[in-house]
Amino acid sequence: MNPNPYHSSGTQQTNVQRLRSVPVWIVGSVFAAVSAFTPLWSGVHLLGQEFGLFPVPYGMFDIEVNGTPVSNRSFIWSSLLAGGLLIGIALACILRAHRNYKHNINVRAAGSQATG
After folding, report:
1. Which of 9, 55, 84, 97 is surrounded by the most beta carbons within 10 Å?
2. Do residues 82 and 39 lie in contact, with contact meaning Cβ atoms separated by under 8 Å?
3. In Å, how far from its chain's centre is CA 49?
C-alpha cells in the first residue's frame, strides 16, 4: 500500500509530487470576492447619492478618518479602487486555479502514458 493518499494507479510517484493545489486558489478567490463587497457597496452607494444616478434609501454625510474630514470624491474613488483591486485579485486566483487544474490533467495524462 502506498502511503501517499494522492497516488492513483495511473500516476507515477514522481508525477504526484508535481501536482498543484486547486482548492486553495478557489477559496482565496471566494474570500477576495466577498471582501470586495463592502468597499464596492459603499462607493456605489455614495456615487448614486452624489450624482443622483439612482435613488438611495439613506445618505452618507461627514465622512471622517481619524478625526480628519474626507471629501466624498476621495471616498468614492478610494472605495471603488479597493473593491476593484479585490475583484482583480479574485479573478487572478480563479485564473491560477484553472492553470493548476490544467497542469494536473497534463501530469496525470503523462503518468498514465508512461505506465501504460
Report:
1. 97
2. yes
3. 28
In angstroms, the first-to-last Cα distance of the chain is 20
What is the per-residue pLDDT across 47-102, written as a single tens digit (0 to 9) for each?
988 888 888 888 878 888 898 999 989 999 999 999 999 999 999 999 999 999 99
Look up residue 47 and give its three cell numbers.
456615487
| pTM greater than 0.70 (yes/no) | yes
